[in-house]
């Protein structure tokens, strides 16, 4: 097992233009209450509208070049949301998923060269032999659905339980990054022979970049780019610098915003800014601003027109649009 100085930090040590990043990372004044939400209370000059309703625990979304929106439902469906707010029927060709607790069909992303290859990437929880793990695959988007879907990556090892799958997909400089949760296997997380609690970097076809930080270490899995994470479920690129930032779902009072650096160990579970439910103490961050939506949110994206789209994680899930008056 490799050990080294941990590289986790509170967000106020790394300030930059947060207007776009805070929207893309989660959360926008969301809570954990599954009761019927109260009317949103946006700041002066902003409007929150319902762009679509009736989704089953929507989890991830990706804008297509024509302005339509791909949306995953954790229960296993992929739909297209038209610009007029109309939802398609579930698309065919989506992989079978383990849809239980936090598992299911999770994130969706399109290839940087989508207009040429039509590739759509999906992350999801899958079950095999009674054990569950995160997987990533891609297929071609057609008028009727997804064709030629193939799995590009499966987590090692699969475990039991239905929580902390990570699963955010991000493309940067030609590489694909996928976040992987700790699956509550705390004794495995400071060990590079497991994917649990890591962010991996692969090529879009699933192959491994030759300059990955641990590719030449015999006891490390070569896909690993960073490690020591709990459950990263938000990611974005700072448009000013190209840096990757992630939001980490920490323990009690321990959510983090971290800048990603190749090979870095972010310390979990040995280091945390939270309380680990009264076991680990840390440093608290200060809230800067909040758009109170009064519901649990799962994904946030900036639309081509500059408005902000939010998915609400509910059995009757909604797509909200936040825009100027």
Notable traits:
325 residues, mainly beta, Neuraminidase, 4-stranded antiparallel sheet, 2 helices, 34% strand, globular
Fold topology:
Elements: H1 18-25, E1 46-55, E2 58-63, E3 69-73, E4 77-81, E5 105-110, H2 114-117, E6 119-128, E7 131-141, E8 146-154, E9 169-172, E10 175-179, E11 199-202, E12 224-226, E13 232-237, E14 244-248, E15 256-259, E16 297-302, E17 308-312, E18 317-324
Antiparallel strand pairs: 1-18, 2-3, 3-4, 5-6, 6-7, 7-8, 9-10, 10-11, 11-12, 13-14, 14-15, 16-17, 17-18
Description of the structure:
This protein is mostly beta strands. It has one domain (11-324): TolB, C-terminal domain (Neuraminidase), CATH 2.120.10.30. 4% of the residues lie in helices and 34% in strands. It contains two helices and 18 strands. A four-stranded antiparallel β-sheet has the order 1-18-17-16. It has a four-stranded antiparallel β-sheet with strand order 5-6-7-8, with no helix packed on it. It has a four-stranded antiparallel β-sheet with strand order 9-10-11-12, with no helix packed on it. A hairpin with a 2-residue loop joins strand 9 (169-172) and strand 10 (175-179). The longest helix is centred in the N-terminal third of the chain and has 8 residues, at 18-25. The termini are far apart.
């Amino acid at each position: 097992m490799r050990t080294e100085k941990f590289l986790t930090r509170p967000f106020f040590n790394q300030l930059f233009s947060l207007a776009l990043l805070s929207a893309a990372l989660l959360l926008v004044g969301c809570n954990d209450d599954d009761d019927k939400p109260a009317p949103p209370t946006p700041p002066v000059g902003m409007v929150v509208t319902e762009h679509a309703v009736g989704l089953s625990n929507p989890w991830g979304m990706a804008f297509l070049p024509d302005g339509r929106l791909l949306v995953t439902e954790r229960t296993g469906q992929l739909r297209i949301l038209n610009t007029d707010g109309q939802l398609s029927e579930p698309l065919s060709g989506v992989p079978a998923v383990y849809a239980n607790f936090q598992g299911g069909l999770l994130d969706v992303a399109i290839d940087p060269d989508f207009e040429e290859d039509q590739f759509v990437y999906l992350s999801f929880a899958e079950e095999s032999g009674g054990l569950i793990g995160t997987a990533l695959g891609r297929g071609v988007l057609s008028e009727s659905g997804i064709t030629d879907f193939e799995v590009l990556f499966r987590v090692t090892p699969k475990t039991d339980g239905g929580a902390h799958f990570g699963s955010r997909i991000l493309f940067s400089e030609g590489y694909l990054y996928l976040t992987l949760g700790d699956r509550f296997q705390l004794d495995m997380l400071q060990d590079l022979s497991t994917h649990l609690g890591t962010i991996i970097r692969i090529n879009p076809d699933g192959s491994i970049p030759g300059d990955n930080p641990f590719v030449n270490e015999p006891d490390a899995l070569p896909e690993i780019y960073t490690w020591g994470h709990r459950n990263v479920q938000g990611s974005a690129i700072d448009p000013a610098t190209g840096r990757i930032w992630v939001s980490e779902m920490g323990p009690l009072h321990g959510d983090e915003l971290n800048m990603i650096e190749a090979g870095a160990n972010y310390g979990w579970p040995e280091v945390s800014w939270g309380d680990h439910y009264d076991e680990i103490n840390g440093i608290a961050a200060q809230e800067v601003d909040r758009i109170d939506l009064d519901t649990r949110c799962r994904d946030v994206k900036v639309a081509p027109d500059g408005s902000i789209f939010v998915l609400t994680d509910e059995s009757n899930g909604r797509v909200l649009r936040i825009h100027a008056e």
